[in-house]
Amino acid sequence: MENVKEKFLEVEIVNPYGFIYVTTNMVNGKKYIGQRKFSHGWKGYLGSGILLEKSIKKYGKQNFSREIIVVGYSREELNKLEIEFIKNHDAVKSDDYYNISLGGECGSPMLGKHHSEETKQKMSIDRMGEKHYLYGKKISEESRNNMSIAQKLNKLNKGENHPLAISNIETIIAIKIAIKNQLRNKDIAELFGKNITYISHIKNNNTWRDVVMPIEGSSEENEIIQKYNIPPKEIKVEVKIETINKKRKEMSEETRRKFSEVGKNRKYSDETRLKMSQSSLKMSDETKKKISESKLKKNINEQKPKVNILSQECRNKISNSMMGRDTKFNEAQVSEIREKYSTGKYSYRQLAKEYDCDHTLISRMLNFKGAYTKIK
What we know:
Helix content: 40-55%
Largest sheet: 3 strands, antiparallel
Strand order of the largest sheet: 2-1-3
Number of strands: 3
């Protein structure tokens, strides 16, 4: 396996389909061999084996690591590689692995196989009588009606009537042309009267990937476009120009101010300066007076301090209140308050109400804080 890793690091990956990986449990050392496509979520994928998922649930994702050991360039190649690696390491029989199937086609053990009549009979017996999942349960009339409707719909939606059914190859080619013209999946589904999920599968090459497409711009392609009324590819440049113009119209005041500040530092030619001076001469005395007054007001506002400063009177009041806070009660009153509190019949707030003071002052007396540290 180490040799395989070395080779993998040296090879340049071009248009890969998927990869074979080994997931390791760092707590007990058990491993799992599997395959995965380079699709959404492949980076954090650890595997989907039954035993592996139970183990991940038990130990947590943080105790598992995954290594890519080889890359495949087609579905068939990936299936062969998975089967080969599982067989070479005897992963199904070994207690050091989580694998329970021989791999290939996502590890389905019954792929291409059929149950024998004897096996079918055994399975039927295992589901009879008390072993049946509906044994002892009563199905309501509403549930029966829903089951009946579902069965009738299943019969009607078979073959060409199925929502995912495609009538012919020409329709597939037309859908692919619409995808190439960058139409939205929703619009394509409405145009052809098909399911949006199936359009998505065609777009992602999950199905109908081997369909031979006509040459671009050929008469065959043009006939299909005219037959199915496929819209042409939109020109994005026009959209960009429209959006730029729209942004210019919707310019905020802040952006306009920034542009004006940039213009202040601009250097003008002598000819431009002459024109500007001539235009300023044309202004009336009243206009010039208004401009000078607005500039003066602006300068005065900028020079004003923004921080609020307290007056001397306010400062003296605050100072006097702080000084007299801990000198309101004499020694006899403090001793009296402490004795009352020691009886357990009074709370801080009750004593504060009785002696007409704040409960925090009572707290300072009882806890020997501030001026009351020396009074015992």
